[in-house]
């Protein structure tokens, strides 16, 4: 099994195959609208604008598992991000990243970088995936998106 075998849900709950992103460099991030790290949306958007034409996609998965910091609906979250941070990368449906209801994609990501018991510790944990679908790096929530530039450039 690899990352392209998974299905994810868009903002409207419609299933999409991860294979849609074959050949792209991915930053997969769990986010929240009321978190101390929420201003990282700005840095994520800068990365997206800088590298999108070279093949970068940012996949934003809101998550309400950490201190109820993403209580809004999927649509409200997407609107918030677009309004306050001018995000243009794709926001997906809200998911769980830990526990028995953790999204299968996140179970896979954690297993690839951190081991099966390596729980997501907070919002804005970022995974970097190469063009072949390999999970190559995991960045802690406190790592600002701009600090990922070199790692992204190496994969582009």
Strand content: 15-25%
Radius of gyration (Å): 14 Å
Label the structural class.
alpha/beta
The level of helicity is 25-40%
Largest sheet: 5 strands, mixed
Point out poorly predicted stretches.
none
- Subunit organisation of the chains: single chain
Q: Give the terminus-to-terminus CA distance.
A: 24 Å
Strand arrangement, major sheet: 5-4-3-6-7
Give average pLDDT, whole number.
Answer: 94
Order of helices and strands: EEEHEHEHEEH
Would you report the number of β strands?
7
Global outline: globular
Instruction: Output the number of helix runs.
Output: 4
Give your account of this protein's structure:
The protein contains four helices and seven strands. The mean pLDDT is 94. The longest helix is centred in the N-terminal third of the chain and has 12 residues, at 40-51. It has a five-stranded mixed beta sheet with strand order 5-4-3-6-7. Strands 1-2 form a two-stranded antiparallel ribbon. With 156 residues, it is of the alpha/beta class. 26% of the residues lie in helices and 20% in strands.
Short summary:
This protein is an alpha/beta fold and 156 residues long. Helices cover 26% and strands 20% of the residues.
Set out the fold topology.
Elements: E1 7-9, E2 15-17, E3 25-31, H1 40-51, E4 56-62, H2 74-85, E5 90-91, H3 104-112, E6 126-129, E7 135-139, H4 149-155
Parallel strand pairs: 3-4, 4-5
Antiparallel strand pairs: 1-2, 3-6, 6-7
Task: Give the tags.
alpha/beta, two-stranded antiparallel sheet, 4 helices, 7 strands
